[in-house]
Write a structure and sequence with these properties.
With 493 residues, the chain is mostly helical. It contains 19 helices and two strands. It has one domain. It comes from Thermaurantimonas aggregans.
Length: 493
């Protein structure tokens, strides 16, 4: 006992305690220096990141919604990280899989944390049923005899089936309050504002060294046309950026009409204005479909005859300006958009011919050629095959090529059902309310994205995918804003 008291007094001595702390610090510093000298600078990054990772895991377990917010952030910065990593020759892990892992971990953590009180009733609805049926169909595609690779199926199915099931499910389950909506909306608009600034920088100052390397490695073929750079900001490509900015434009424009403060209205107005400008900078013709159809959907949902007439006249004037005049023809961005309405456009005719070829190829293949057999995954895992060399362009063409006419029909009608049911819900809402305005904004953006999918696979690209799926779950759960549900029951079983 006396020995134990002496030990306690020894460690309680302030001078000795200070010496021990410094000794521990110096030992750690020497150990770190030894590792850096022998293993390289990468070990220093790991050691520096370790406390951050530990803190994040603790916060993640305490606030599971952090997984969804982090996934949204990753979806924005992923292309930029990949480009800089490639420029400096830093081998990066497949960060895209991080989104999958975070979304799955969010489910796991909530179930583990509330394992005796977990409540899945919020997931019992027709939308989740349709998404589950589609996921089951995609899983059955593993047995497609024409498929070449399980790895190709795994990488490809994430964008066309897994993400939507996980994100919309989490939205129903956990994101059903006013605070949840504005949290992810502010992330979405905040990163979009940064993207617009970055796009303007690319336009008037130039691209970064990492972006120039990305262009030099082959992307200049599609991103430098007639000596003009198609602006892509920090997104995967100009097509994704253009559609995303069209989405920002229509959502912000409708939110501007909502019952908000003057400062917030100014912010939404500027986002709509500069979002449209950034969309034009991208040179993505199909992106015009997003604010175009989105605007039509908004006019229908508004149930305001005067607004419907005024909006229709404005849209008609815009159509006539692009289709039947040559005003501002010397402006590259206007000229590029004008070709989107040209029925004799060579690119459009090439797509039509390709789709006819696909129809012939799939004549005796009702279930398609297998998930992951087209596009980049096809070139990587089954090079030299007919589908690997086929350029699907639009998302719906890709779905038809990989899952057949049966899959394409179910896929398209599933999304249309979700849209029309949401519009029916909006029609029954009281007009002039915050919920009505938010629902119209999100569904107008969703409608535009659905049309843009015809020319480009935008709904399978980050960050458009996450934002679109969160929009769906928000509109379908907006009636709970004043009485949000929880992913667990208030009382134990």
């Amino acid at each position: 006992m006396q020995t134990q008291d002496k030990i306690n007094r020894f460690f309680q001595n302030e001078t000795i305690a200070e010496v021990l702390r410094w000794a521990a610090f110096l030992s750690f510093a020497v150990f770190t220096a030894f590792l850096i000298a022998n293993k390289g600078i990468a070990i220093a990054a790991v050691l520096l990141a370790l406390p951050i990772v530990v803190a994040y895991v603790i916060l993640f377990f305490r606030y599971p919604k952090l997984g969804i917010y982090t996934s949204l952030v990753i979806s924005f910065v992923l292309p930029m990280i990949n480009r800089w990593g490639d420029y400096y020759g830093i081998p990066l892990p497949p960060l895209g899989l991080g989104v999958d892992i975070l979304l799955l971990l969010t489910y796991v953590i909530v179930i583990l944390k509330y394992w005796r009180r977990t409540d899945f009733s919020a997931l019992s609805n027709d939308v989740m049923l349709l998404l589950t049926i589609w996921m089951a169909y995609i899983v059955l595609q593993i047995a497609n005899p024409l498929a070449y690779s399980f790895a190709a199926w795994f990488y490809s199915m994430r964008g066309i089936a897994l993400y939507q099931l996980l994100i919309i499910g989490l939205g129903f389950w956990m994101f059903n309050s006013r605070k949840d909506f504005y949290n992810w909306l502010h992330l979405f608009l905040g990163f979009s504002a940064l993207a617009i600034v970055w796009a303007i920088k690319q336009k008037f100052i130039g691209v970064s060294p990492a972006e120039q390397k990305w262009l030099d490695d082959g992307e200049h073929i599609t991103h430098v046309l007639f000596g003009k750079l198609r602006i892509f900001s920090y997104y995967f490509d100009a097509g994704t950026f253009g559609a995303a900015m069209g989405h920002v434009c229509i959502v912000s424009a409708i939110l501007f009409l909502g019952p908000y403060s003057k400062a917030r209205k100014i912010f939404y107005f500027l986002m709509a204005l500069f979002g449209f400008y950034a969309m034009m900078l991208s040179g993505t013709r199909g992106a015009l479909a997003v604010p175009g159809l989105g605007g039509i959907a908004f006019l229908v949902m508004s149930k305001n005859v005067r607004l419907l007439v005024a909006g229709s006249l404005i849209m008609l004037a815009g159509f006539v300006f692009l289709k039947y005049t040559t005003i501002l023809q010397s402006n590259y961005e206007v000229n590029r958009l004008r070709t989107a309405l040209d029925s004799d456009d060579p690119s459009l005719n090439t797509r039509k011919r390709n789709r006819k070829r696909l129809t012939e190829y799939l004549r005796d293949k009702p279930f398609g050629g297998g998930v992951g057999t087209t596009g980049s995954w096809g070139k990587r895992f089954s090079p030299g095959t007919w589908l690997a060399d086929f350029e699907p362009d639009g998302l719906y063409t890709r779905i038809r090529a990989e899952t057949g006419l049966i899959g394409r029909q179910f896929y398209v009608w599933m999304w249309l059902y979700i849209l029309f049911k949401a519009i029916w819900k909006i029609w029954k809402m009281p007009t002039g309310t915050e919920e009505h305005n938010v629902s119209m904004a999100l569904m107008a953006g969703y409608a535009g994205i659905l049309l843009a999918n015809y020319g480009n696979a935008v709904m399978t690209q980050h960050p458009i995918s996450l934002v679109t799926f969160l929009s769906i779950s928000t509109v379908y759960t907006i009636h709970r804003w004043n009485n949000p549900t929880k992913p667990y029951k208030d009382r134990e079983w």
